[in-house]
Amino acid sequence: MRKSRKPTLNQTQWGGRFEGTPVPIMEEINASIAYDQKLFYQDIAGSRAHASMLVKKKIIKPSVGNAILKGLDKIEKEFAAGTVEYDRSLEDIHSHVEKRLTELIGDDAGFLHTARSRNDQVATDFRLWVRDALDAIDKDLRTLQSALIEVAEKHASSIMPGLTHLQPAQPVTLGHHMLAHVEMLGRDRTRARDCRIRLNECPLGSGALAGTSFPIDRESTATALGFDRPSANSMDAVSDRDFAIEFLCFSAIAAGHLSRLAEEIVLWASPSFSYIKLSDSFSTGSSMLPQKRNPDAAELVRSKSGRIVGDLTALLVIMKGLPLAYSKDMQEDKEPVFDAAETLSLAIRAMAGMISDMAIDCAAMERAASVGFPAATDLADHLVRTLDLPFRQAHEVVGKIVLNAESKGVGLESLSLEELQAVDSRIDGSAMDILDLMSALESRESYGGTAPSCVRKAVASARLKWLGVELP
Ligand code: ARG
């Protein structure tokens, strides 16, 4: 500490006990204003609720309460107009608002901090911020689901290869494939909802850690801020960051889903696949290779998940092992959450743009779907049904037929009935129909299957479930 008689701005909050001032390096490591200014609106909202409650409970005079509320209105306008000046020595957003309020209404501003600590204040502000972020990202996810459902509807019967191990397995429809992603994003949305439910308890009124001797009304501040109830334990309330970790878990899982979709977009747009062409708006060229159309946005969405997992890891490690209640380590909770929220929202919006704009080459998908003996399983199922063979034996018979086709360099549909019968004489002409890809596809009508009839129904229920829209 440097010896100085002039306290720093923030020391006016606790100056009584201090004789010296922090060195610049202390200020630098201590300050969070560079990023927690994002909590501005939440901080003002929390202060409004607190001030009104203090007046109602006769803890502060109505005239002081009114002056505080008017001052907060003015500060909010100043912030919206971008005229607030930030000062690192003031440390964080809470001190900035209080300092400005003092400039506006004088010492009465000091009554606002009655029965409040920055510990319950920041916990409240941050919950409010994460709650807004969850709501905004839910909207983004809904938009992406809507784009995927549109494609699914248009392509309910467009054949494409269905892969396992990235090898041809069984043909599916593009619609079915798109709806798989809709389900994944739907689970993300329910995770966001679950996180919101647990998050929605109000820490305000917990004080530094032990509550307060003032006769506050925590129900009323909780209600004013849209929380379901006040938090039950003051020590937990100021030291809990589960809601932020859960937000990051949700974000990491959702980003993982986006990265899987992004990887498929990258593959499908590559000339080796050519199933889709991304629009010019979502492609980039190469400075050296004139023929290139690069799916940069999809690649970046794929990579953003790494960053978001990093954000989650950071906060998990920050919180691990902290003794109750508040520790300054917890100031480091904000940047990972802000980063993840911004990154995830951008990734979702970019993905929705790519999906809505992409051109789909159905002929290329259909050609690819016939490569790799995709009807083999259907033929085996047919032999089970018509010859009453155990599936294992049917598998063996079809395996031999595949070997034969492979050695001739043709697909199963090009083999003659005699060639099939050479492997098992009991096979009859009905087997030949099975080798038609479209009829194979149409036969997979089990609930949740890929038959176009199922996909059409699934599109309707996805609309209802995720978009809240009845089919016309
Ligand atoms: N800027 C601080 C944070 O984000 C506010 C709480 C400070 N509390 C304290 N006891 N120093 O965590």
How many helices?
19
Structural class, judged by helices and strands?
Answer: mainly alpha
Q: Quick one: how many beta strands?
A: 8
Separation, N- and C-terminal Cα atoms? 72 Å
Radius of gyration over all CA atoms, rounded? 31 Å
- What proportion of the residues form beta strands (DSSP E)? 5-15%
What order do the strands of the largest sheet run in, or round the barrel if closed? Answer: 1-2
CATH superfamily of the largest domain: Fumarase/aspartase (Central domain)
Q: Which descriptors would you attach to this protein?
A:
3 domains, 19 helices, two-stranded antiparallel ribbon, mainly alpha, binds arginine, 5% strand, 472 residues, Fumarase C, Chain B, domain 1, elongated, Ribonucleotide Reductase Protein R1, domain 1
Task: Write a structural description.
The structure is a single chain. This protein is mainly alpha-helical. The chain folds into 3 domains: 106 residues, Fumarase/aspartase (N-terminal domain) (Fumarase C, Chain B, domain 1, Orthogonal Bundle), CATH 1.10.275.10; 238 residues, Fumarase C, Chain A, domain 2 (Up-down Bundle), CATH 1.20.200.10; 97 residues, Fumarase/aspartase (C-terminal domain) (Ribonucleotide Reductase Protein R1, domain 1, Orthogonal Bundle). The chain has a two-stranded antiparallel ribbon with strand order 1-2. Helix 7 packs antiparallel against helix 10, helix 7 packs parallel to helix 19 and helix 14 crosses helix 15. The model has no long low-confidence stretch (mean pLDDT 94). Bound molecules: arginine. Arginine binds next to helix 6.
